[in-house]
Amino acid sequence: FAQQQEESFAFHRCPSLLEKMLRLWAILVCFLLGVFHATAFVSRPSSRLSVSVSDPAKAWIRANSVTPRSMLPLNAMAIPFPGNSTTTSSPTSIPYGRFDRSASTVAAADQDCILEIDGQRYNLTKWAKAHPGGVKVLHKFHNKDASKAFHAADHSTAAYAMLKDFWIGPVEGATTDGASTMITHQALAGATVGLPPTRSRPRWIQKLFTREDPIGIHKYMGFFALAHFIFRFGQLYFGDPSAGYGTRLGKGPHIGPALCLIPHAVLALSSLIFHTVPKERVVGKPMIWQEYRIHNIAFGIRSVVCTFLAWLSTYHNHAPSFRRLAVVGSCAVALASQITADWGTRNFRASDVESTTATMPYWEGCSLQTQKRFKIFYAYSQFMATLACIAVVNPAWSLSVLLAIQLASLFMTLVRKGIFTSKMYHIGYTITLLMPFAVGMRSNLWMPVGAFPGMMVMGAALFTLRARFRINKYALWLPIYAARIAIGDSIWMPHNVW
């Protein structure tokens, strides 16, 4: 084994052209598989508007001078037009199968929520669940004047501008004379009447430093995390299969990579400073809500701690005490993350038929078959992520798992800002989920052993038991954790090569 290790070191120091081509091929195949998986068998939407509007509805729009562009999509707003039914339904009923569920692209019929603000009426019925302050405070002012409460809440400029999407007309008998803070539909369309005074800071700075994050700690940690991922995966591709967290090239481990994990943990925890995250999932778009945030924090911290433990074992030359600490600690952290995620689900999930991934919204025109493909791959990747974290061999495995977790939040933020579409989110998220597979393939190119293929087989078996036979999650994982601790490293890749 020592001779094989020395030969591997020599082979690694002077990579041949063939090895470089194999590395490039492995990475390209992973990315192309992600793109193909995301775009294959996608039913293209018709170029025409898929929602038919009856003549009474068109007449209602013309009479109220509201253009479709200034409104939410008709199938999402479900405004009660004259002569139309106000009841909306999901395009498909929710089957019993987990991966056959479809996200709600059409909002269900909810309690009416029409508010009066400065003499204007706004129909917030279909958006009420996305209100960061909760739906109850909006229902409290149904068919009432909410002007005083609205201004007292110190809403942002974006909140004022967003009202135009829900405007349905002026209050009967309302007058605008002498009302300096009157919000009219014309003002919301472009004037500055009723909007908070503009600041001298550039617009990009106002977006970067929000009121909830005045010093930009979350943004700065996000920029660092993104740059750190780029550096580590570049290091992985151009020479070091452990991305700087192992003993490659004979340099030995360094404390610098471990310190670089701290901003990732701060990034995950600093998301709690944002109090405007809606409790319910936003209908129609993959955007952050409170249950998802708890899951993101739990599994993000899991990857950070497991990467640190793998590095710690390497840093102390895999001394038995530190090696056992790494194995036991990684299993304990993985179990704690699952318990924390379940706690978040119990306290923040609005519907028992929803799931953070199984009912994630997709783009318009995405077929149910394509959605099912995404969901199956997402679920399988979750099993692989947990196995990568408790393996405690190559630290780059658990670090690559963190990439998908933290970039998913970035993609959802870009969707909220209108920069990303739902389709771009799912394609981007799929590519990030493929990175742990790229790390495993890169490791096998450096030292061909059966650990990573064995993990893939084990992940498929666990996924099948969970998805098809509905075996309890803890009944699956507790024996795996116990076996990992009891058996040790005998069935895994030799850890002392990292």
UniProtKB/TrEMBL annotation:
One of its GO terms (cellular component) is membrane. The chain crosses the membrane at residues 22-42, 255-277, 297-316, 422-439, 445-465, 474-493. One of its GO terms (molecular function) is metal ion binding. Pfam families: Cyt-b5. The keyword Transcription does not apply. Belongs to the cytochrome b5 family. This is Cytochrome b5 heme-binding domain-containing protein. It comes from Amphora coffeiformis.
